[in-house]
Amino acid sequence: MRKRATLFVVNTIDDKILMIHRKRDGEEYYIVPGGGVEDGETVEEAAYREADEETGLEIELGELLWKRPFSTPRQYGANIEQIEYAYLITQFSGTPVLTGPEFHRQSETNQYSLQWVPLADFPNRVVYPSGMDKEKLLAAINGK
Fold first, then answer.
1. Can you give the chain as a three-state secondary structure string?
2. Which of 56, 67, 48, 58 is nearest to 7 (CA)?
3. With the C-alpha atoms ordered 135, 17, 60, 98, is the resulting torsion angle positive or negative?
4. CB–CB of 116/17 below 8 Å?
5. End-to-end CA distance of the chain
6. pLDDT tens digits for 36-73?
7. Which residues contact 10 (CB under 8 A, 6 or more apart)?
């Protein structure tokens, strides 16, 4: 089963979360930074790599929020059964910038842009990964 590291990068001063705004084949939606664990890589190593590739930020890996199974919807490619390891990131430095494979795959019909989204709007805008535990995430952010 494929493993995925998901990164909830939260600016606790401004109450915003870093999201990837996607425009793909005429559709617009938001995703949470993260991606698959590569061969020979630990989940933690994948989290740091994905942070670098998809956010350009230097991060300190925070609390593991959850580990859960989920399926990739068919509209995002093949239906893949995965285990998501979701991490809260509140300690980071740098300026968000997309540098990895997503940057190189961009085209007129396939775009990625990093955006700080108010926590009040989250996860209403998120479509991938679906089925997150909003209450658990907000409790972790608020230290409860």
1. CEEEEEEEEEECCCCEEEEEEEEECCEEEEECCEEECCCCCCHHHHHHHHHHHHHCCEEECCCEEEEEEEECCHHHCCCCEEEEEEEEECEEECCCCCCCHHHHCCECCEEEEEEEEEHHHCCCCEEECCCCCHHHHHHHHCCC
2. 48
3. positive
4. yes
5. 32
6. 999 999 999 999 999 999 999 999 999 999 998 877 66
7. 16, 17, 18, 88, 89, 90, 119, 141
Radius of gyration (Cα) for the chain, nearest Å?
14
CA dihedral 71, 74, 75, 81 (to 10 degrees): 30
Q: Are 25 and 107 in contact (CB under 8 A)?
A: no
* Residue 13 tokens, joined: 């001063």
Which domains, from first to last, does the chain contain? 2-141 (3.90.79.10)
- Stated pTM of the model: 0.86
Residue whose token pair is 């494929």: 2
